[in-house]
Amino acid sequence: MTPLWPPIASHYAAHVDALIWWYTLVVVLLTAPVFILIAVYALRYRRGRVADRRLKTNSSILIETSWSVIPFLITVAFFVYAAMLFFGLHNAPANAMTIDVEGKQWMWKFEHPEGQRELNDLHVPAGVPIKLVMTSQDVIHSFYLPALRIKQDVLPGRYTSLWFKADRPGRYRLMCSEFCGTDHSLMGGSIYVMQPGDYARWLRTAGLDASLAVRGASLFRALGCSGCHTGQTGSAAPDLAGLYGRPVPLSDGRVVAADDQYIHDKILTPNRDVPAGYPAAMPTYAHQVSEDQILELTAYVKSLESANGGTRP
Amino acid sequence: MTTADWANVETPEEKVSYLRAGHTLRSWLFSTDHKRIAILYLLAISFFFLIGGLAAAAIRIELISPTGVFLSNDAYNRAFTMHGIIMVWFFLIPSIPNTFGNFLIPLMIGARDLAFPKLNLLSWYIYVIGGFVTLYALIMGGVDTGWTFYTPLSSLYANGHVVAVAAAVFIVGFSSILTGVNFIVTVHKLRAPGMTWGRLPLFVWSHYATSLVLVLATPVLAITLVLLAAERLFGLGVFDPSMGGDPLLFQDLFWFYSHPAVYIMVLPALGVVSELVAAAAHKRVFGYWFVAYSSVAIAVIGFLVWGHHMFVSGQSPYASAIFSFLSLVVAVPSAIKVYNWTATLYKGSISLDPPFLYAMGFIGLFVVGGLTGLMLAMLAIDVHVTDTYFVVAHFHYIMVGGTVTAFFGALHFWWPKITGRLYPLAWGRVAAVLIFVGFNFTFFPQFILGYLGMPRRYHIYPPEFQPLHVLSSAGASILGLGYLFPLVYLLWSLRNGKPAGPNPWDAKGLEWTTPSPPPKHNFEEIPVVTEEAYAYPPLGEHSK
User: Fold this and answer.
1) Which of A140, B269, B335, B362 yields a CA-CA distance of 20 to 30 A from A209?
2) Strand, helix or coil for residue A35
3) Is B347 helix (H, G, I), strand (E, B) or coil?
C-alpha cells in the first residue's frame, strides 16, 4: 500500500508540512483564475462564435503592477516563515547530544557519545535534541531523514552538522540523497527513535556487536568478499543483505537456516551446502581468518539485515 | 540576387524557394542560408532527442520494479547521466534558438540572413563535432557522474569517460556562443527600415535575451570543465579537499552557468508562446512592453540565483537566505508573462488549431513547473525535497512540459512556412492532447514521490514507492506515443500535405508575408515596416 503522505516524526516535520499545505493553498488560489479564465475565454471567444469583442485597452500599468506586486508580497510572507524554520535548523541547542556520522561509498557509520558504533542504522532517544556532526571519507553524500523533513550534504575534508528532536518513537528511513556512485541507491538504513529508557537499554546491549560489525565490514572488503558479494542482482555471489536468520534453499533441495554456524561454515568450507542457483565458486578462507575475525564478519553480515531500509523479508 | 533577377522568375514560389535552391548534399552541408542551417539543426537535434528519449525509456522501464529489471546499478547510473547530458546540451539548449530562431529571426525582422552566415554554419559543425564526441563516449561505455559532474566523484572516483564527455560539452558550448553573438548582432544591425525595437516580435525579444545569457554564461561552464579535466588528468587539486581545494567551488561555478542555462532553455519557449497566443487570439499581446522587458529581466536576475541549488550543500545559511529571496524575485517576470497571455485571450477570436493547443498546454504545465519552483525556493521546503523526485518533476515540468511543448507548438505553427505544406489538423490536435495527458501522468506522480522522500538517481528503491513509479512509467509510454505521432504525420505531409500558401493561420508578422517555403533570400525587396507587431484589425461588437 502506497502512503500518500510521509510519516511525521517531529514537531519540525509538522511545521514543514503546515508550510507546504498553506503555501499550496495560496498558490492554487493565485493560479486558479488563470486556468479558469483560459478555459472560459477559449469557449466564449472561440473563433466563429459571435461575441462582443470591443476592447477598451491593450495595456495597463495599474493592472500589471497589481498582478505582479500582490502575489510577490504574499510569497515574501512565506519566505520569511520558511527562512525562520531554516535558521532554526542551523542553530542546535547547547544541550544537544552529539553523534558522529561518517559517510563512505556506500555506507553510513555512526558513533554514539559513549563510543557505541553502528553501521547504516541509527538509534536515537525520543524527545532529546540530537546533533549530528558529519563528514565523508570519499565523495559528497547527503544524509536524509524524510520522516523528519531534513537533509544535509556530507562533504570530504569538512564537517557539516544537522540537529533534530524526534518526538514520535518508531522506525523510519535513512538515506543518501546525493548521487555518490555505483551503489548510491543502496546507501541507507533505518533510524530508530526510541523511548529514552529503551535507548539506554539498547546502548548497554548493542554497542559491542555494532563495533564488531564495523570491524567485520572492513575485513569484508580487505579479504575481497565484497568483490563477489556486491549486493546487486546478477552478481556472481548471493546478496548478503537480510540473509541472517533467513531460510536458505540449497542446490540439493534442502533448506537450512542462515544462523551463526551456517555463516561460520560458509567462510571455512564454502563448497559444502551451496545455495541453489549459484556455482560452487567461492574459495575457502580457512587459513586466512581467525575465529575472532569470523565473529566480526558474522556481526557484519547480521548488521546487513536492515541495510536497504530493512524491507527485505 | 537583385530585384531584376527576381522579376524574371516565372513562379517564384516554386523555383527559388530555399528548399529548391540546390539539391546536392553539398548544397546543404555548405549552405550559409540561415533557413537551411536551421533544417540541419532540426535534423541533428531530433537525432539526439531520440537518443536521449531512448535513455529515458530505459530508465522508466527499469523503475517499474523496485529492484530493477534489466540493468546493473552502474548501467542505470550511466543511463540517467547520458539522458541528462544529451537532453540538456544536445537537445534543449539548441532546440528552439538554433532551429526556429535561426529560421525566423531574419524573416521576422526583415533581413536576408543572419549577420554572420558563415559563423552560423560553423556553429552547426561545432555542434556536430561535440555530438560525435558524446556518441564516442556513449559507445565506449558512457559516464556515471550525473549531468552535474559533482566533484570529487567526477574528478577522483568515477570510472566512466568523464573527460570525453566534458570535452563534448566544452565543444558544444562554442556553438552556443557563436549563435548568441550572431543573434545579438543581427537584431542590432539588420532590422528592416521601420522595424524599431518597439515593433520587434516578442519571439525576437526573447531570443535577444537568450543570446545575452548564451554569450555571458557559457564561458564559465567552459572554464569549469577545463578545471575538472585538469583535476582528473593531472591532479590539479582546485576541487580536491585533500590538496586544499574545495568541492563546493565546483558547484558554485557549475550552477553559475547551469541556472542561467535553464533560462536559455525557457526564454525561447516563452517567445514562441507569445507568438502563438497572439496568432491564436488574433489580437495584439496584452502589455507588449511588460512581456518584452520581462524576458530581459529574467535573463539578468537569472544570473543571481544559482545558490538555490545549494541550500543543503554546506553553503552559508545567510547566503542561502539571499538566494532564496532572489529566486522569488525572478519568478515575478515569469508570472507577468502568464497573466498577460491570459489577458491577451480576453475578447480575442480564439483558434483551437494544433499550434494553439500546444500553447495552452504550455501555459498550464509552465505554471505548475513555476509554482513548484517557488516551493523549492522556500528554504525549509527545499531542505526536505531537494535531490528527490520533487525536483525531478519540477524541472521536467519546466523543460519538457515547457520547452518541449513550446518546441512542438513552434513546429506545428511554422511547419507550413518551413515546408510549404499543411499537415492534417485533426491528427495534430490528437497529438497535442496525447502529449499533455501523457506528460501529466508521467510527471505529476513524481511530485508525490518526492514529498514522500524518494531520492532521485535511485536504481533500487523502497517497495512502497512502486505504485507511483508504475503510474509514471505508464504515463511515459503515452507521452512517447504522443511524441512519435507528429513524426509520422509531419513526414507524411512533406509529400501529401496540401500546399499551405503564404499565411495559413492568417497571422501577422513579416515571415507570413513571404511565400511558403520562403525564397532563398527571403525578401524580394527589404520591407518597410509601418506598424506595430500583432497589428490585427480591431474586433467589433458582433464579431466572430
Assistant:
1) A140
2) helix
3) coil
The dihedral formed by the CA atoms of B124, B125, B130 and B135, expressed in degrees to the nearest 10: 100
Bridge partners, A135 (sequence order): A102
Distance CA A147, CA B2 (A): 73
DSSP B46-92: HHHHHHHHHHHHHHHHHTTSTT-SS--HHHHHHHHHHHHHIIIIIII
CB of B175 closer than 8 Å to CB of B156: no
**Is it true that the peptide bond before B517 is cis, omega within 30 degrees of 0?**
yes
- Closest among B435, B354, B400, B414 to B203, alpha carbons compared: B414
* Chain B residue at shortest CA distance from A52: B541
User: Can you point out the beta strands (E) in B133-229?
Assistant: none
- Whether A16 and B378 lie within 8 Å, measured CB to CB: no
- B102-109 helix and B34-62 helix, angle to the nearest 10 degrees: 140
**Pairing status of strand A255-257 against strand A150-154:** unpaired
pLDDT of residue A270: 85
Q: Which residues of A261-288 are buried (b: 16+ CB within 10 A; e: fewer)?
A: ebbeebbeebeebbbeeeeeebeebeee
Q: Cα separation of A180 and B144, whole Å?
A: 10
pLDDT tens digits, residue range A111-149? 887 778 788 999 999 999 999 989 898 999 999 999 999
Q: Do B350 and A42 touch (CB under 8 A)?
A: yes
Q: How far apart are CA B126 and CA B168, in angstroms?
A: 10
Q: What is the Cα–Cα distance from A105 to A99, expressed in whole angstroms?
A: 20
SS (H, E, C) B192-210: CCCCCHHHCCHHHHHHHHH
Q: At what angle do helices A11-44 and B317-345 cross, to 10 degrees?
A: 20
Rounded CA separation B20/B23 (Å): 7
CB A107 within 8 A of CB A119: yes
Q: How many residues does chain B have?
A: 544
> Which residues touch B76 (CB under 8 Å, ≥6 apart)?
B59, B62, B68, B459
CB < 8 Å from A in window 50-79 of B: 67-68, 72-74, 77
Q: Which positions 238-257 of B are in contact with A (Cβ < 8 Å)?
A: 241-242, 247-248
Place of cell 535561426: B102
Which residues 139-158 in chain B show a CB within 8 A of chain A?
144-146, 150, 152-153, 156-158
- List the pLDDT tens digit at each of the 544 positions of chain B: 344 444 444 444 444 899 988 889 999 999 999 999 999 999 999 999 999 999 999 999 999 999 988 999 999 999 999 999 999 999 999 999 999 999 999 999 999 999 999 999 999 999 999 999 999 999 999 999 999 999 999 999 998 899 999 999 999 999 999 999 999 999 999 999 999 999 999 999 999 999 999 999 999 999 999 999 999 999 998 998 888 889 999 999 999 999 999 999 999 999 999 999 999 999 999 999 999 999 999 999 999 999 999 999 999 999 999 999 999 999 999 999 999 999 999 999 999 999 999 999 999 999 999 999 999 999 999 999 999 999 999 999 999 999 999 999 999 999 999 999 999 999 999 999 999 999 999 999 999 999 999 999 999 999 999 999 999 999 999 999 999 999 999 999 999 999 999 999 999 999 999 999 999 999 989 999 999 999 999 888 778 7
**DSSP string for residues in B382-427:** HHHHTTBHHHHHHHHIIIIIIIIHHHHHHHHHHHHHHHSBPPPHHH
DSSP string, A132-156: EEEEESSS-EEEEEGGGTEEEEE-B
CA distance B371 to A23: 10
A86 → closest Cβ in B283, B317, B332: B317
